[in-house]
Amino acid sequence: MTALLAVEVVYALPGRQTVLPVQVAQGASVADALVASGIFAVHPEASGADVPVGIFGRVVTRDHRVEEGDRIELYRPLVADPKASRNARVAKKRSARESARNMRA
User: Fold this and answer.
1) What is the DSSP letter of 64?
2) 11: closest CA among 22, 3, 23, 24?
3) How confident is the model at residue 104 (pLDDT cuts 50, 70, 90)?
4) Domain residue limits, the chain
5) 104 vs 12, 22, 99, CA distance in Å?
């Protein structure tokens, strides 16, 4: 008898996240767990082979073997580059600070 491993498959959207617990046979791959979870029926937009996957925030390939308790995550593309967004916020704060400083002078 093959041992079963309990894992979670997760897909997050801006307003909600879907967490599907699933049991897979020992030696199952990430791809096997994704199919067994039924995540693609709930989120067909995540079904492409080019959608990156990871376990606890670390990107892995779909043939990676899962272990007990793994949290398999499907990643969406970033809307904006985090570094560029941060630089824009800093520039805006600096500009506001400079404006306030010039008004006092």
Assistant:
1) P
2) 22
3) low
4) 4-79
5) 47, 62, 9
d(CA 59, CA 54): 4
Residue 63's Cβ-count burial label (10 Å; 0-12, 13-18, 19+) is exposed
User: What is the pLDDT, as a whole number, of residue 1?
Assistant: 61
**pTM for this prediction:** 0.72
Which residue type sits at 104? R
Instruction: Read off the pLDDT of residues 34-63 as tens digits, 9 standing for 90 and up.
Output: 999 999 999 998 888 889 999 999 999 999
8 Å CB contact between 40 and 102: no
| CATH architecture for the domain at 4-79 | Roll (3.10)
Tokens 């390939």, residue?
61
